[in-house]
């Protein structure tokens, strides 16, 4: 994914605009199905769409599935929901893509597992399906027709800036708990590398985790010394996060900053720290209701909130419109995807980094 210069970060006004949009989407989930089916986009023919997520257990993907299912009648969409069995199940997604082609669906919404599904996506597009990636831009970005996603680089940068501001010049001994160590996924390297850039740590290859200098100076918020202890994969799961954190602590028990790919990983990391009698500043990304609660309780110092319902419903509406002769969506200026928004959530704000509180985030979060 080409990394382009970022425009100035969102102000509170933009955050509240995203919140309002999300609230409208949530309100849409409560509409009566009879009236929606009757409206059916002016009585147009029903459009077949499949939503393929990485799994059906992560609260982020569950929220995406439920939101799309609740909103499908609004656009007279016949929605099929599928997923891999777990993170890393390329074949499960490939099978779902092939099934969509066989059914004659008009489009696919997919959170692509890895480059391993690229060939199947190409096959679908060659068959005439319009393919929108959600949350995870594929590599390369033009594998799909367009991506609706959080700017994961910006999300990582926000929590990195917050971490540097919180450290306030003190030495930072850092653990990086990533998604995979055997796959290259854009959401993985963009969040990790964005975090480092936010702290003011030079990255080497912007599409590769773990090749930056292990010691040096972080320059954000006045700067200080840093040591990177580890890049460990937690597979986006709580148990994986705990195991990854245990491995990092075995190398250096004095870790005081922990970057995590998502909030289940953060909870697992915290459990490992508690078991070892240690504390650290933990930052994460997702903004689910459970993650926001972890910010409020102090388990997570800050998280970057994203909006999966908006990704799914806007993507589904786009496919329905295109199938009926509407215009195709275009990327936002300066990006190669449509940005669905991000907001830093913390109850310990730092100067120069725009944020919302956990109470504000709880009003617009997703999941349980």
Automatic annotation (TrEMBL):
Coiled coil: none annotated. Residues 49-326 form the Periplasmic binding protein domain. It is found in: Cell envelope. One of its GO terms (molecular function) is carbohydrate binding. Residues 1-27 form the signal peptide. GO terms for cellular component: cell envelope. Keywords: Signal. Belongs to the bacterial solute-binding protein 2 family. This is Sugar ABC transporter. The lineage of its organism: Bacteria, Bacillati, Actinomycetota, Actinomycetes, Micrococcales.
């Amino acid at each position: 994914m080409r990394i382009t210069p970022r425009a100035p970060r969102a102000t509170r006004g933009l955050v509240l605009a995203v919140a309002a949009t999300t609230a409208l989407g949530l309100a849409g989930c409560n509409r009566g199905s009879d009236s929606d089916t009757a409206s059916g986009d002016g009585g147009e023919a029903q459009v077949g769409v499949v939503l393929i997520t990485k799994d059906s257990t992560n609260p982020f993907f569950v929220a995406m599935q439920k939101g799309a299912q609740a909103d499908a009648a609004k656009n007279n969409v016949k929605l099929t929901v599928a997923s891999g069995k777990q993170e890393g199940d390329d074949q499960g997604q490939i099978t779902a893509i092939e099934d969509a082609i066989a059914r004659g669906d008009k489009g696919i919404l997919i959170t692509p597992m890895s480059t391993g599904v690229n060939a199947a996506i190409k096959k679908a597009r060659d068959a005439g399906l319009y393919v929108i990636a959600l949350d995870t831009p594929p590599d390369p970005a033009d594998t799909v027709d367009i991506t609706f996603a959080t700017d994961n680089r910006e999300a990582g940068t926000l929590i990195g800036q917050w971490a540097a501001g919180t450290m306030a010049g003190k030495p930072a001994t850092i653990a990086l708990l990533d998604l995979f160590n055997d796959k290259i996924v854009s959401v993985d390297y963009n969040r990790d590398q964005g975090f480092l850039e936010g702290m003011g740590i030079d990255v080497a290859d912007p599409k590769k985790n773990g090749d930056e200098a292990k010691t040096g100076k972080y320059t954000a918020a006045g700067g200080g010394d840093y040591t990177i202890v580890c890049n460990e994969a937690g597979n986006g799961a709580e148990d994986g996060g705990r195991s990854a954190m245990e491995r990092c602590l075995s190398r250096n028990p004095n870790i005081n900053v922990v970057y995590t790919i998502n909030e289940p990983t953060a909870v697992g990391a915290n459990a490992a720290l508690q078991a070892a009698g240690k504390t650290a500043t933990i930052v994460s990304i997702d903004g689910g209701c459970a993650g926001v609660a972890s910010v409020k309780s102090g388990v997570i110092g800050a998280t970057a909130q994203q909006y999966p319902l908006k990704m799914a419903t806007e993507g589904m509406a786009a496919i329905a419109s295109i199938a009926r002769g509407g215009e195709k969506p275009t990327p936002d200026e300066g990006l190669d995807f449509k940005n669905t928004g991000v907001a830093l959530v913390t109850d310990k704000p730092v100067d120069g980094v725009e944020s919302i509180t956990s109470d504000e985030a709880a009003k617009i979060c997703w999941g349980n």
